[in-house]
Amino acid sequence: MLKTLCRSAAALVIAAAFALPAAATTYSTDYTDLWFNPNESGWGLNLIQQGQTMFGTLFVYGVGNVPQWFVADDIEPVGTSQTLFTGQLFQTSGPYFGAGSFDPSAVHAVTVGNITLTFTDVNTATLVYTVNGQQVTKTVTRQTFRNDNLSGNYLGGLTAIGSNCSGVSNGPILIFQTLAVQHSNDQISMNVQFNATTGPSQCTFAGTYTQHGRTGSVSGNFNCSIPNATGNTGPFTISSINSSPDGFMGHFNGHDQFCTYDGQFGGVRDVPLS
Q1: What's CA 14's distance to the chain center, in Å?
Q2: How would residue 126 be classed by pLDDT, with cut points 50, 70 and 90?
Q3: Would the pLDDT of 13 be above 50?
Q4: Mean pLDDT confidence for 22-49
Q5: Long-range pairs of 91-96 with CB within 8 A, sequence gap ≥ 24
Q6: Please, are residues 263 and 171 in contact by the beta-carbon 8 Å criterion?
Q7: What's the rounded Cα separation, in Å, for the pair 201 and 214?
Q8: Among 2, 10, 23, which residue's Cα sits nearest to residue 243?
Q9: Rounded distance, CA 69 to CA 58, Å?
Q10: How buried is 68 (Cβ within 10 angstroms: 0-12 exposed, 13-18 middle, 19+ buried)?
Q11: Has residue 68 got a pLDDT over 90?
Q12: Res 3 pLDDT > 60
């Protein structure tokens, strides 16, 4: 079973696990992205999240079909919610961009209403905003215009909690050492090679990669080969994958013939040996 796979690598994990990349915010899912309605291409919402606070710019059109944009500089969670955020919406005016030096004192902001975002999942939200008494409600999703490619060699793997286990006890599992990723178009294979207590072992997580704005997800199946032990097989998903030149990280859910697993999957990019 998975929870016994990588005890011999525990010292390595203690030294390296804190280097794994994470989302830009520790408060909730990182909702930083360009959001739009795919049936209404031509307007959108930019969100930048730091901690629990979001900064939003809304670019739409006003009376006479002229471009118009609004800004919300303090979109905060409602209570302790991690999916419901709201804030004031402002319309600003300022100096002409071609006038040379910019005078910040000439910028003026007028409160025109409010903006509320209710995230139904990590990639979809209901946007409600009000401008001078006119309320608009839209469904928005992350906008994708380029796909990431995770191919490369990493130091990483899976850390998770096993639950609803049959024949084994619930608890933490660890599959962590060298991680090799092959990623072509929408197909991805992630192979973790590590030293288990019974000898050199490996687990392969293969499936279909989907881009969601600046994040990604993988759905597929995994299988593990461990000397003198029953191999593990089952379906898995990795969601909210954040990637950078330094590595990647996502949220892992899966199960095999022993347990259900919930945790994190990712790694820091390895340096070339030559």
Answers
A1: 24
A2: very high
A3: no
A4: 89
A5: 91/131
A6: no
A7: 33
A8: 23
A9: 5
A10: middle
A11: yes
A12: no
> What is d(CA 7, CA 175) in angstroms, rounded to the nearest whole number?
9
Angle at 171 between CA 235 and CA 260, to 5 degrees: 20
* Stated pTM of the model: 0.86
The CA distance from 194 to 179, in Å, is 9
Reported as a single tens digit per residue, the pLDDT across 199-209 is 899 999 999 99
DSSP 17-68: GGGS---S-SSSS---EEEE-TTSBTBEEEEEEETTEEEEEEEEE-GGG-EE
- Distant-in-sequence, close-in-space partners of 162: CB < 8 Å, separation ≥ 6: 1, 2, 3, 168, 170, 171, 172, 173, 258, 259, 260, 261
How sure is the predictor about 25, in pLDDT bands with cuts at 50, 70 and 90? confident
72/87 Cα distance (integer angstroms): 7
- Residue 274 is predicted with a pLDDT of 62
- In the block, tokens 């800004």 appear at 71
- Which pair of structure tokens corresponds to residue 7? 């005890």
The DSSP secondary-structure symbol of 229 reads S
Evaluate whether 78 touches 84 at the Cβ level (below 8 Å): yes
Across the range 233-249, mean pLDDT stands at 96
One-letter amino acid identity for 114? N
How does residue 41 score in pLDDT terms, banded at 50, 70 and 90? very high
Residue length of the chain: 274
Amino acid of residue 29:
T
Nearest residue to 180 via CA among 169, 188, 168, 191: 191
* Structure-block tokens of residue 203: 């687990």
